[in-house]
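Database export, one record per block. Field names are fixed; values are copied verbatim from the stored entry.
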Amino acid sequence: EAATCKALDVARIYLCDTGGQYKDGTTDITRTVHFGEPSEEERRVYTRVLQGHILLASAVFPDETPGLMLDMLARQPLWQAGMQYGHGTGHGMGAYMNVHEGPMGIGGGSVPASVLKKSERMKMVYLEPFRAGHFVSDEPGCYLDGKFGVRIESDLLVVPADTEFKMGSRQWLKFEYLTLVPMCRALLEPSLLSPAEIRWLDAYHNTVWDTLHGSMSAAACEWLRRETQPLGK
């Protein structure tokens, strides 16, 4: 409501959870941005969330792996810093139906095992096997009560993976990254990122630029070029 909504402020973080309904599917995308000079705490929290996002997006796993096992990838950089978020990490998306749709999901790491064992809904969703063709979100976050919150959400498609070895009888799978929205450069803390994470981010931003700049206005292109500049040398 207008009386209680906060106005946009260049001195504060802005979390935008958006998406759309299209003839070929539904999207659910979140980006956290800052239009001014973020604090060191804001940059560190954002970068830890981004690290978890990248780890999950880069996963390679055998067919029928449940989302409960994938969840720790997104949470690990946060857990290492003593941070946590209280929602699931990923959900399926319907077409012309529910934005949040099963049967599978990624989560379970926000609650103890005693809670998970008693929840039929959590067991049903987070133990559902992942298979090629599943469409799922990747959305770790972190929220500091009374201060600010960060979430990064993109949409992924489960596809076959080409691995060096073919051990076991199950097909190997990975995620195809579908969302083309740059990360917020102002909120990055490069000193926390590994060389592999920087390579992932630079390759992603290169794809975003190459795919989108030809169909954007001059002003939008200027913004996109600034946000997709490589971090690596």
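Remark 1: The mean pLDDT is 95.
Remark 2: Residues 17 and 65 are 28 Å apart (CA to CA).
End of record.
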